Amino acid sequence: MKKVGIYIHIPFCRSKCAYCAFNSFFADFDVQKQYVERLIKEIESFEYKDEILADTVYFGGGTPSFLYEGGVSAIIDALKKRFIYSPREVSIECNPESISQAKLSEYKSAGVNRLSIGLQSASNDLLKKAGRIHTLEDFLRSVRLCKENGFDNVNCDIMIGLPGQSVKDVLDALNILFQFSIVKHISMYGLKPEENTPWQNITVDEDLSADMYDAAYDLLLKNGFIRYEISNFSKPRYECIHNIKYWKRQDYIGFGLSAHSLIDNVRYANPDSLSDYFQGKKSSLKLNEQQIKEEYIMLALRMEEGIDLQDYNRQFGEDFLKSYKRPIDKLSKLGVIELSNEKLKIKPRFMGVMNSVIVEFFS
Question: For residues 336 and 341, what is the distance between their CA atoms, to the nearest angstrom?
Fold first, then answer.
């Protein structure tokens, strides 16, 4: 039996944000219904040589909470029929304006036990400039509604580096989140200008963004959150189990438009075109050992715990410390990495220059 995470992509949004490059768009009820029917067929027709245990499920998007009432339940029912369904964690991404009593009741009945709400900023002015269609008041209402409906494991997303944003704006958003006991997880992402978005030509002040991150990091730790990945913080034991699968290169299956999978070191990708998706097209790439090693190192160094040397040596049949002696010596002299308890990791205060550290292993 193979244990996997399941990712479900819901590409629909009520409107597009100024920074968003994800494959998402507005769709009416009829298109949404057709899409769910196609997605269920994809689940039903999935083939693998062994039985599969689904131990995490993650609905991402887009805005999954924009999907019509009953859609999420129908998809979960299909998963139950196709796989051994015993998830420890079932997450769904939501936007404040699309959270309702009816949908929360549906999610609860379907077994969803983790919600992820996009706040992004506590400033209504910044939200409006970013193309967000909710206000801070909408967010506060949605969190209270989640609590009333018995949800006690909520993630909230915030952004740093927005045009006109200050360090104070970021800290204000965090202090609002700290008021809610059900907010056990906070994801903090830096703005990256993407092609074919309204903000593609925005210039991000990298120094100011670094100041925002550092100030937020200190405040999160003071309020009982731990950083377990460069952009993700949680109360102890509330890390996102599903997302950890990505960073540890564990198997996962993606269903839906633009969804990706990793199974037995083969990466699969569904098409970005809705018409191609409806035709069942898919691409795949068998990773070679060097690609697998590079993914392993890059993803492990994103995490606070770093590289498990024994696990690496066991997987690849080589001594990591000998194979990468030159970059390890260089980075050790610079004081940016540490070796302890069979782990190699970036020192906490240097996580902000993580990319510069990782590239040394591939030079």
Answer: 17
